[in-house]
Amino acid sequence: xxxxxxxxxxxxxxxxxxxxxxxxxxxxxxxxxxxxxxxxxxxxxxxxxxxxxxxxxxxxxxxxxxxxxxxxxxxxxxxxxxxxxxxxxxxxxxxxxxxxxxxxxxxxxxxxxxxxxxxxxxxxxxxxxxxxxxxxxxxxxxxxxxxxxxxxxxxxxxxxxxxxxxxxxxxxxxxxxxxxxxxxxxxxxxxxxxxxxxxxxxxxxxxxxxxxxxxxxxxxxxxxxxxxxxxxxxxxxxxxxxxxxxxxxxxxxxxxxxx
Length: 259
Hints:
Elements: H1 4-15, H2 17-37, H3 45-62, H4 74-110, H5 117-132, H6 138-142, H7 148-152, H8 165-199, H9 202-217, H10 228-241, E1 248-250, E2 253-255
Antiparallel strand pairs: 1-2
Helix pairs in contact: 2-3, 4-5, 4-8
GO molecular function: calcium-activated cation channel activity; ligand-gated calcium channel activity
Membrane topology: Multi-pass membrane protein
Main location: membrane
């Protein structure tokens, strides 16, 4: 029974989104530094460590968004962004089905003889996604052939098949109609509903965020690492040398000592 509150606190710690950011960032930092220090034994590990360190910087920077919870205007916007991310997640299911259906079909019609697997996957997913934003490969659809010198090269792109390029144009029109008009407007409507729903209760959301933030930082030391050791030494002196009892926080209630 005594270990149950501890397990609950550990579980609550790992379920918190910002704590997950911290754990991921620290794991990436340790992993990248380990790779960078071993670059003399494994020269290729330096590049992988540098890549992970760049991603780790992005995670550490995004962690700063937590500070916005104090502000009355920016605090509710964090809730709105979080709920919109959930809307985007469900929206990607619809978009992914259309991307795969259109990408595989156009790849089979335009470049049926290409055997390069990485390039096939790139064109199936990457090219339809860029076409949503207006980047349309008209040279491949219209059947513009490359020069003889480029065709004879080993890694040259194969010539597009012109047998059914008219069908690719029809599929492109249907894909852009569904993706740009139907699905994007559906996403905008979901965003509008989420914004109006949260904005109507913005004061309640902000007060809840502010309370949780104050509760979180109430018992934390004032100094940041690596100077946090000074705060711990000061805390040790207060408790064990000066015999000063601390304020305890349990389940959101601040209970003072009887003295």
